[in-house]
Every structure is written in C-alpha cells, then in structure tokens.
Design goal:
Oligomer: single chain
Number of strands: 12
Organism: Bradyrhizobium stylosanthis
CATH superfamily of the largest domain: NAD(P)-binding Rossmann-like Domain
Order of helices and strands: EHEHHEEHEEHEHEHEHEEHEHH
Protein name: Shikimate dehydrogenase (NADP(+))
Number of domains: 2
Keywords: Amino-acid biosynthesis, Aromatic amino acid biosynthesis, NADP, Oxidoreductase
Helix content: 25-40%
Function: Involved in the biosynthesis of the chorismate, which leads to the biosynthesis of aromatic amino acids. Catalyzes the reversible NADPH linked reduction of 3-dehydroshikimate (DHSA) to yield shikimate (SA).
Family: Belongs to the shikimate dehydrogenase family.
Strand order of the largest sheet: 2-1-3-5-6-4
CATH class of the largest domain: Alpha Beta
Radius of gyration: 20 Å
Length: 287
C-alpha cells in the first residue's frame, strides 16, 4: 500500500465587526488549496453575534479550546486584544496593534502584518520612487502601520497630517524613538508640505464608497508626485483617478490587503503562499 501521509490541516478565524463581505477567508482558503493543505477559515462576526470587543477574552479561550491554529483580528479588536495575549512580536509591540494571532502549544502570540502588507505592495509597484520627503494623511490604526512601513522603507522625512492633531502627535511620539531624530514630524500647512514632497500616502478612509472625496485638494497634485492609497473599496479612488490622469506614479490599496494576508498565512502555516492566488481571488471577488 502507498504511504498515505495525512495532509497538514489548519483551523483559522477572523474576529471583527461587520466582516460578512471580507475577502480574507476565501483568499486564504484558495492559497491553501493551491499549496495542497487542508485549511478551514471561519468568520467570527461580532455584529452578527451582537457582541463587542469585551467578548474577546471568552472568544480567545474558546478558540484555544477548539484547536484554532491562528486568528486574524480587525476592527474593533486590534488594540483591545493586546493585554489578552501571551506574547507580542516586536512589530506588534511597536505599533500597539495586532491583526494576526498565532496559537502554538496553548500560547497566543500577536503579530502585525499590516505594515508588511503596505511595504511589500510599495516595493513591488513603486520601484525608483523617491523617499526623501513623504506626506501621510491619516494617523489612525492603519496610519500607524503605514507610517512604520514608510520608515522601514527608508523615507528620510515623513510628515503626518491628521484633522485630529492629538492623534498625529501621538503617532509621531510613539514611533520617533525607534528611528533617527527628526525623521517624523507633524504637518500643519497642507499646501506648503505637499509642495515640498516627493510622494503622498492616503491612510484615511476618505475615498471609500461610504466616505467619498479626497484627503487633500486635488489641485495640489502634480505629475512628479507619487501617490499611494490604502483604500481598496473601490480600487480606484477619486485621489488615484486624478493622480493617474496627471501622470503621477500611483499604487492602489489592494496589494496591502493581499500582502498582509500572505504574511499572516505564512505565520499560521509556515508555508509562503503564492501571492498570485491571493490576487486572483481578490480580483474575482471584486467583480
């Protein structure tokens, strides 16, 4: 008889509110099929369960008891989960947010792959982009991951602009000690800051279907600026559309969603998945 080795199997979940339409579970399962492993990805939708982040301790205990190998975590749990974990990766600790939890031998370790998703998307699609002066709009949870990624990519001077100055200051204060002095600062004058910039990043929700518009006046755009987005509903935001017409080098937010997923898959399984499978599934679900 042939040696019938059982395929590795993994049980993974996504905890968050309003995740019914998430593309993450089918992307992970398609990648697992391509890799020849059994992989079940369950959605744990707090909205459907009529629960809030206060249910996290109970849900994590249940996940451990039920043999989950990992969890992805999204709004509103990325910060609330921190004190409930056994360990944090250096990146998760630096960002104060977790989006991926690996369960091994009864211990839960929190990681942050959001920053990796942005950085990898940028590396692949923005080769040659000048990293001298960059302006980032948005200092929320996603903004923290993007700012961390930009600094890791080698941006020399990153200016954070947010309507909430306290939030912008908090982000600069938390990340500055980890990088050379003077590389991170708050921006007040949008016109002057963008005029001196090599590139801009939208790390706000503005541009999403439910938050239409642009994070800055599009009259400030010019052909020598590069423009990066994190929004991917829709893939082409008003900001990107205008930038492309002008001839700016641009990158949409789809890749960030895909590469944070490929890195989470690797952490869960030890297998580096084929990003093309993630891309194909992401694109098919967007039709």
């Amino acid at each position: 008889m042939p040696n019938m080795q059982p395929k590795p199997s993994f049980l993974v979940g996504l905890i968050g509110s309003g995740i019914a339409a998430s593309r993450t579970p089918p992307m992970h399962e398609a990648a697992a099929d391509a890799a020849g492993i059994r992989y079940l990805y369950k959605k744990i939708d707090l909205t459907e369960l009529k629960l809030g982040a206060e249910a996290l301790p109970e849900l994590l205990t249940a996940a451990k008891r039920m043999g989950f190998d990992g969890l992805n975590v999204t709004h509103p749990c990325k910060q609330a989960i921190l004190p409930l974990l056994d360990e944090l990766s250096p990146d998760a600790e630096a960002l104060g947010a977790v989006n991926t939890v690996v369960v091994r031998n009864g211990r839960m370790t929190g990681h942050n792959t959001d920053w990796f998703g942005f950085a990898e998307n940028f590396r692949r699609n923005m080769q040659g982009a000048s990293l001298g002066r960059v302006v980032q709009f948005g200092a929320g949870g996603a903004g923290a991951a993007v700012a961390f990624a930009l600094m890791k990519l080698g941006v020399q001077e990153l200016t954070i602009i947010d309507v909430d100055l306290t939030k912008a200051q908090s982000l600069v204060d938390s990340l500055s000690p980890r990088f050379a002095e003077g590389r991170l600062k708050i921006g007040h004058d949008v016109v002057a800051t963008v005029a001196a910039a090599d590139g801009i990043v939208n790390a706000t929700p503005i541009g999403m279907d439910k938050y239409p518009g642009t994070p800055l006046p599009t009259t400030l755009l010019r052909p020598d600026l590069w423009v990066a987005e994190i929004v991917y509903f829709p893939l082409e935001t008003a900001l990107l559309r205008t930038a492309r017409v002008l001839g700016c080098h641009t990158v949409d937010g789809g890749g960030m969603a895909i590469f944070q997923g490929t890195e989470a898959f690797r952490l869960f399984t030890g297998i580096s998945p084929d990003p093309a499978v993630f891309f194909a599934t992401f694109s098919a679900l967007g039709r």
